[in-house]
Amino acid sequence: MSLADVTAQITDACRSAGRDASDVTLIAVSKVQPGDRVETVLEQGHRIFGENRVQEAEKRWPPFQKRFDDIELHLIGPLQSNKARAAMALFDVIHTVDRPKIARTIARIAEEEGHCPDLFVQVNTGHEDQKSGVLPDDTDALVTECRDLDLPLKGLMCIPPADETPSAHFALLAKIAKRNGLTGLSMGMSADFANAIDHGATHIRVGSAIFGERVRG
Asked: Residue 116: enclosing H or E segment and its boundaries?
C-alpha cells in the first residue's frame, strides 16, 4: 500500500460511515522507519506524523522541520515524567496521558513554559498488564483531574489487544468519551482503521500501510 491508498481507504470508510473524511486525522506512524521513507511521505505532502520515543523523535525531526513547513508531531508512545519537558517542547499532541502523576507533571511544566500540547488520555481497554493506559473504570477520574489542572484535553486513545476483535474496544472508548463530553477518539491502526472510523475515530495511527514494514536494527 501507500499514502495514496490509505487516503483513498479513509475516504471510502468515511463514506460508508456517513462521515466527512475531513473529520479524520491521519497520523503517519514513522517510528523505527528509515529517514528516506519518511522523507518520501513528506515530499508527497503529508505533514502529520507519530513517534513512540522522545529521544528518537528529537534526533529525526529537527532537520526535517528546517526543510518542510507545518510538520505536526504526535507522541503515541508511553511518556515518562523525566521526558515530559522534552516531549512538550517537540510534540504538538501527546496521546498517552495515562496517570495522575504525568498529568500533574505536564501541568507544572505548562505553567512554567507558557504552552502545552493538546492531550489525549490513553485507556487500557483490554486490561493488559504489559500495556500503558488508565483502566476504563478509572478514566473518568483522570479526565476530571486533567480538567481541574486546566489541561487542553481533546479526547481518549486506545490500542486494542492484538488477539481480540477491536470493535468492542473502539465502542468502549467511544462510550467513555461521550459520557465525559470528549469528541476526540484516537484509535485504529493499519489493520483496523476502517473499523475505527465506523466507530467514530477522529485520529487514526497508520504506519506499515503507508511506509511498509518497520525496519529494525
From this structure: none
> How far is the C-alpha of 111 from the C-alpha of 153, rounded, in Å?
15
Q: Do residues 147 and 119 lie in contact, with contact meaning Cβ atoms separated by under 8 Å?
A: no
Answer whether residue 214 shows pLDDT above 80: no
Half-sphere exposure of residue 83: CA atoms within 13 angstroms, side-chain side: 18
| Distance in angstroms (rounded) separating the CA atoms of residues 70 and 23 | 19
Residues 32 and 105: their CA atoms lie apart, in Å, by: 27
| Euclidean distance between CA atoms 102 and 99, whole angstroms | 6
Q: Alpha-carbon distance 105 to 81, whole Å?
A: 7
Residues 84 and 102: beta-carbon distance below 8 Å: yes
Q: How far apart are CA 156 and CA 182, in angstroms?
A: 8
pLDDT, the chain, mean? 95
| DSSP 8-state symbol, 131 | S
* Residue 113 and residue 68 in contact, taking contact as beta carbons nearer than 8 Å: no
Average pLDDT, stretch 40-61?
Answer: 96
Where do the H-state alpha helices sit in the chain? 3-17, 35-43, 54-67, 84-90, 100-113, 136-148, 167-179, 193-198, 208-211
Burial string for 191-203 (b: 16+ CB within 10 Å, else e) reads: ebbbbbbbbbbbb
Select from 216, 205, 211 the least CA-distant residue to 76: 205
